[in-house]
Specification:
Elongation Factor Tu (Ef-tu), domain 3; six-stranded antiparallel sheet
């Protein structure tokens, strides 16, 4: 029996800079080092554990879909020792990989559904995996609406890809950047050129022009402004916990039921197979029972967003 703790060797085929700043994000495209044409088998929403040899290992959400081919993409923000070491690697170097872990999104049970995908920052990575899967099986699903926010246009990951998708007839894309902030909260000032602001006091009153996909405002405010329909729709939100909580409130105001709302939870996962106990959430283990949970499940668990 194979040891589940032993990683397989993967080679970095390419590195793409997604955004710069104090917390830059890079997307690493990997292939198996010993079987370069062997496929990666996984579901959208699952995670892998990546090892930087001699430094340590980290859990990462998969940012590609199995339908993308025999390569795996991981988008990584540089925030600590292991991610800094990973960012210092170059194309052709070897990393360790084990997984996939977790339950993934129940895409087979969502056939025929519409989608509202709400992401913020690096939280867009698992949503990208889900979106690529849905687009690869476009006839199986209904309308797709994608909301994505960042602090600035320069800090927005997948921006080129999302703007290209905004010009497509396959889906609707809404991109937003943060308000200018003052001591007492958002400032109702003119937004950056080309990024008109939503109505600060009452986002629902915002006039969204046909074809408009850029905004200034927080992601939940843009959701309020667009007001997606809850009929036959699955909503998935990933990102900072505060954004997730506010997005869920927006969805509930729009009539979404708890069983229609999904998110991914990130806890201190270590082993990936439910043995070490570091990621327990009440009776559940995020690495095996999650990371994907419905709002209905979360309401029955303690400290869901702690």
């Amino acid at each position: 029996m194979a040891n589940p703790y032993v990683p397989r060797r993967a080679r970095i085929e390419s590195i793409r800079d997604e955004c710069g700043g104090p917390r830059p994000v890079r997307t690493f495209r990997l292939a198996w080092a010993d079987e370069p044409t062997a496929p990666f088998d996984f579901l959208p929403g699952q995670c892998v554990e990546l090892s930087v040899i001699g430094v340590g290992e980290i859990f990462l959400s998969i940012a590609s879909a199995a339908e993308d081919g025999d390569r795996l993409e991981l988008s990584v923000m540089r925030v600590g020792r292991v991610t800094s070491a990973l960012h210092a690697l170059e194309e052709g170097e070897i990393v360790g990989l084990r997984g996939p872990y977790g339950n993934g999104f129940p895409v087979a049970g969502w056939h025929g559904s519409n989608f509202v995908l709400i992401g913020g920052g690096i939280g867009q990575a698992p949503l990208r995996s889900l979106l690529h899967h849905v687009l690869a099986h476009r006839d199986d699903y209904g309308r797709i609406q994608v909301f994505h926010g960042a602090r600035s246009p320069e800090a927005m990951i997948y921006r080129d890809e999302l703007e290209a998708q905004a010009a497509s007839t396959d889906l609707d894309v809404y991109l937003t950047i943060d308000w200018k902030m003052g001591d007492d909260g958002p400032l109702d000032e003119d937004a950056r050129e080309g990024w008109p602001r939503v109505a600060l006091d009452d986002p629902v009153t915002t006039e969204v022009a046909p074809g408009q996909f850029r905004f200034t405002g927080f992601v939940p405010q843009v959701v309020d402004a667009v007001s997606p329909s809850c009929g036959d729709t699955i909503a998935v939100t990933c990102g900072p916990p505060v954004m997730i909580g506010l997005a869920v409130q927006s969805l509930e105001r729009l009539g979404f039921r708890p069983e229609q709302i999904y998110t991914t939870l990130e806890r201190r996962m270590k082993c990936g197979i439910g043995l070490c106990g570091r990621c327990n959430l009440g009776p559940q283990f995020v690495c095996t029972d999650g990371p994907v949970f419905s709002q209905q499940q979360l309401l029955a668990l303690p400290e869901a967003f702690a």
